[in-house]
Amino acid sequence: MKKILISASIFALSLTANAQGQFISDANYRNTVENIFKERVKTVGKTFYNTQKEKLTADEQEALKFLYAYMPLADVTDYPTSFFADNVRMAFKAREEMPWGKNVPELLFRHFVVPIRVNNEALDNARSVFYNELKDRIKGMSMMDAIIEVNHWCHEKVTYQPSDARTSAPLATLKTATGRCGEESTFAVAALRAVGIPARQVYTPRWAHTDDNHAWVEAWADGKWYFLGACEPEPVLNLGWFNAPASRAMLMHTRAFGDYNGPEEVMLRTSNFTEINLTSNYAPVAPIDFYVKDSEGKPVENARVEFKIYNYAEFFTAVTKYTDANGHTSLSAGIGDLVVWASKDGKYTYQKVSFGKEKEATLTLPGGALVGGYGIPAIPTQPTGSVGALSGGALVSSAPAGSVGALPDCSVGALETSAPPKCTYLDLVPPKEDPQLPYVSDEMHKENQRRFALEDSIRKAYTATFPTMEEAKRISERGAEYIFKSRGNKQTIVDFINRHSDNEDRVMGILATLSDKDLRDITTEILEDSYNATTDQLSPRVEDELITIPFKQYFEKAFSKKAADAFRADPMKLVEWIKKNIRLNPDKKALRIAQTPVGVMKSKITDERSRDIFFVDVARSLGIEARKDAVTGKIQYKSQGVHLSQVHQPTNKEVHQKTNKGVHQPTSIGALETSAPPKEVHPKTNGEWQDVKFDNTADKTSTAAALGTIMLTYEPTKLLDNPKYYSHFTISRIENGTAHLLNFEEGQADMGNGTTWSNTFKNGYKLDAGTYMLTTGTRLASGSVLASNRLFEIVEGQTTTLPLEIRQNTNEVSVIGSFNSESLVTKDGKEVSLLSQTGRGYYVVGILGVGQEPTNHALHDIEKMKEAFEAWGRPVVLLFESEADAAKFNHDEFPGLPSTVQFALDKDGSVRKQIAREMKLMNEKQMPMFIIADTFNRVVFVSQGYTIGLGEQMQGVFKKL
Question: How far lies 511's CA from each of 466, 520, 537, 657, in Å?
């Protein structure tokens, strides 16, 4: 991997610490920060910035003002000034006491050491805790060695485990000893900054070649930026398991706190952060200039331009930019394909672009009459009584309501018209893989493995103190599951249960609303607030917001009895109160870290996301049933006539839907992941859900939704009988010219549930009237995608029927199923994961029927293709079903097997059963079984039973991978 170079000499004059010791040496920049700071304090109120009791040096005061000038609104209103003052002091202490402190350039100290926030985590006192733990451990080390040592410390404390999209605070991650990659990288960045090393979280929002994403860390040492896998220490820097996929990424970036002026390409400047492009540090890139014009050919200023990567069966917005006065913006990205989507004032268009092939692209927004945001093309009128055509996405037909609209054929290739066609095929190719790996000797690797094992043992000694299920049951039979899942937060949950043993139902009702992650980091104050509140609305959570300040009892006292009664009688009055008393931040590009409802109430200023959460929390605190709809994100309350004891409380699975099948889930700072579709856990009521619309007039702030039905038709095939949401298709609603994904439940990968064609869309699903886009895709083994988009309308009272078309390519390998690469097998008497034996990449797994003719044929076929297997170079793991089978297998009978073959045991048949289940094999006991899969859990080939020419078939697959 090419080193990430920022020469200190280039910035020697502008970046080195000022001789006078000022935090900001540039007078103009200092004046700018001062003005922004004053405006911020004026906006939120002087009570939120109070340094009277703080003893700050001139430098520390300047740094504190810098933080307040650019921090998200939620940080200003939800944390006391003393908290940030303490962190600023610790940053300067590290600068003074660490040997490299004086060598860190001013620019990097300001933007990558002093800031506390890394992602969308709750803020805590990790800086002081981490500094005290690490300062002696790295004493006397060089800066590069210190980075590696800090990462070893991180691995000693935390290991990878998938979880929901909310990012836990560093100390919460420390407490639970696990985190997804976004949490591991947040943790590692916090640790590095604590000892005065500039660090930043780097993430690819989505990979281009597979349905996954990842976050890691860059740290600065002696004039250069280096990268490392967070909590995954390697012997050297610029090395991680993700070297190869990073070389195929389309976009990798980070967000520098404040207005940052470094050498990197700036993708977006906001009032909180500067988004910078780091892709060229990992892969070849090419630029494209983009021009957005209106229907008359005039440039469109401030058009929103979204750069989208196909991933999880949607076109995910990885980067958002805005056009200048000339309608221009630009982007450098990996040498592959993206979809670029331009919009303004509800009008939109999109097209595929190929970086490295195109120099510029023009997107023309439609003009004239609009249906759903795009121009209405000329469409022949259908005869009376015939099936309606889709005109701009709307059904135009004299057929009766509920009839099916005829669908235009999909267009192929790049879009050439200003208005997107109603159906488009898009073939997308990711960049080629070309990793550059630093040298690591065998001795270095062995020493790193030794340390790895030691650190694992230290961490496991700590996690051994966590409650087992048996211990949890002894404490509380009903609460055992919650105690078990609480890990390092055990005492909080146990004490809460024991404290209120006289009202176990309410305690269990509150705990039932919490996600697994909530159980690991919820505080006593939040639990007690929910318990002691008079409302029967038990859940403290609306979506993925931070729950750091108790609010239910606060809002019981915040309004007069007369006002509270009026709100309960007519929740629209609460909507009107919010519209009248809570200002909206006019800055639409600001980070949407959700404010606490108490912070909103005290500051009287917020953004749309926090306002929505505020409404639900206040309503629930006053006994009004309210929610943020899991699928659509709409804010709703239940109409009158609902008894409080019947109120639906969301379960942990409802609140946190995307556990992401075990994949990494870094969240762009402030990004919102909505929850899963509700499962009724209380009796249904007679009331209807009313939509809250804050932007409507006073008499129309609430209404029952106008609903239509979407029905998808699909003809099951042998390999894909029931397409899955997020794997094969998604639906997005087009609102104000942008696409918003409908977040249906994903389910748990090992349970086989979740949203599919047959259980949700086969017989019709109700959606709000409006414009939508159905996206489908087939991920080929090469990483390429065969995708399609269909724009359609949902009309009130009507059924819109669409074909669920999953495109296939018989000329290239495609993903046909999934297989858990971390499945356990037995080797040399020990349980190990397949991943530990295969390493990253593709591999073959075979289940052998020892002594059976089909197995003998298969192995001999593989022998015939030994040269091809060894040229491919990937592991072949052959599994016996028992020790007896292993003992009787005659290795001498197959002397020509490739050197890449290794043997192990599938003692309980779990691997065989998994292959049979996932591949939908007719007989789970028929041997042999072979699959070709990779460590992203994709299966691209399967064979079972008697097959002649198996080796040749596999060779054909190898050539296409």
Answer: 18, 12, 13, 17
Task: Please give the pLDDT value at position 781.
Answer: 67
Q: Are 106 and 17 in contact (CB under 8 A)?
A: yes
Q: With helix as H, strand as E and coil as C, how does 497-519 read?
A: HHHCHHHHHHHHHHHHCCCHHHH
Check if 4-282+436-458 and 817-960 are the same fold.
no
With b meaning 16 or more CB within 10 Å and e meaning fewer, what string describes 294-307? beeeeebeebbbbb
pLDDT at 696: 67
Question: How far apart are the C-alpha atoms of 308 and 314, rounded to whole Å?
Answer: 9
pLDDT digits (tens, 9 = 90+) for 790-847: 999 999 999 999 999 999 876 777 888 999 999 999 999 899 999 999 988 999 999 9
Structure confidence at residue 657 (pLDDT): 37
Domain boundaries, the chain: 4-282+436-458, 285-376+409-428, 468-681, 817-960
Q: Which residue has the tokens 């040997």?
A: 99
- Token pair in block for residue 99: 């040997």
In 3D space, the residue among 309, 647, 653, 718 whose CA is nearest the CA of residue 481 turns out to be 653
CATH number, span 285-376+409-428: 2.60.40.1120
Distance CA 131, CA 158 (A): 17
How is residue 75 written in tokens? 């940080």
Residue 229 is which amino acid?
G
> For the chain, what is the radius of gyration of the CA atoms?
29
Alpha helices in 404-468 (DSSP H): 442-463
Kindly give the pairing relationship between strand 689-692 and strand 635-638: antiparallel
The first and second tokens of residue 862, run together, are 């593989």
User: Which amino acid, one-letter code, is at 855?
Assistant: T
Q: How many CB atoms lie within 10 A of CB 434?
A: 12
508 neighbors 595 (Cβ within 8 angstroms) = no
Using an 8 Å Cβ cutoff, are 190 and 158 in contact? no
Question: Does the pLDDT value for residue 401 go beyond 50?
Answer: no
Fold of 817-960: Glutaredoxin (3.40.30)
Report the C-alpha gap between 62 and 802 in whole angstroms: 59
Distance CA 207, CA 789 (A): 20
Task: Give the span between the Cα atoms of 431 and 336, in whole angstroms.
Answer: 5
CB 121 within 8 A of CB 170: yes
**pLDDT for res 174:** 97
Task: State how far Cα 174 lies from the chain centre.
Answer: 21
CATH dotted code for 4-282+436-458:
3.10.620.30
